[in-house]
Structure prediction request, 341 residues.
Amino acid sequence: MEPRVQAAAILTRLLFRLWGKRLKALRIFLMVLAALMAAPSVAQEPDTTKRIAFTFDDVPRAKGVLFTQDERTQRLIEGLKKAGVEQAAFFLNPKNIPTNKGAEARIAAYIAAGHVIANHTFSHPRLSQVTPAAFLADLDKGAKWFEGREGTRPWFRYPFLDEGRDDKAKRDAVREGLAARGLTNAYVTVDASDWFYEGALETATREGKAIDREALTALFIESHVEAAEFYADLAECAVGRQPAHVMLMHENDLTALTLADLIKTLKTKGWRIITVDEAYADPIAIEATRYDTPSAGGTLIEQIAWQKGLPAPRWYSRNDTRLAEAEFRRRVLGGEDTIED
Prediction:
């Protein structure tokens, strides 16, 4: 509330308390109120503080090329603690829990460490490829697992960040379905396609290629920091301030390997790490319920920029995986950086 308006409200309450001395109180009140309202407004500077929360999708995942599932979970927990992250969010696909040995215990370990969990559908379908009824049924199937679970939040993360793409009827049907279930869209504002680097590592390992691990971690961290800076700049143009940002990552080996150093690097760039609860309390969350872009998907910042007519590119460059692959081949595998059509 603007200071002068807040002061006027306080004076109004004071007037009623002093009503026994009506005339004198009224004269004082009117004089002060007139002075307050005649005073020029103090311009409210837009918030430029860079804040970011961390979220991890597709839990539980299978064993990777670097760590077992237990090792990866422990590294993620330790990395978050080392970096001073009080709360991250893990988005679950319950279909994978029964077949992933020890998954329930690992999820419980995240919660015991102070983190929270939320629904990412039962089986990870793309909304653009199924009917709204089928999508919501899959969401409901996943929701059953969360009933009575400690650490659960009423958030829903769209698989693939696919909110229906150019099918507005489908998009709106699922939005209505989320509202009816008391769920909010667990949007993201920063994405650097961490899944791509994990897949590239797995492929190179399977093919027996020499991998420069130091170059790989440097590329991974660099890409995520660059993405955060890119979307912060885009937010300044599209939103007019710095909202609380939410980074999308996955429960994978590279994330576990680099997380503490990634967060340390973000801090050197002026980023403050916040909880996911704080991030989703930002007013930008309202935008997640009403944007009307030509294609619903991707980061929320991109969609707002598109809605407001900002020109492309509205996405971080290496989210074009052809560019990411060229960097991976050149820096990690020591090969050519040509981009194939």
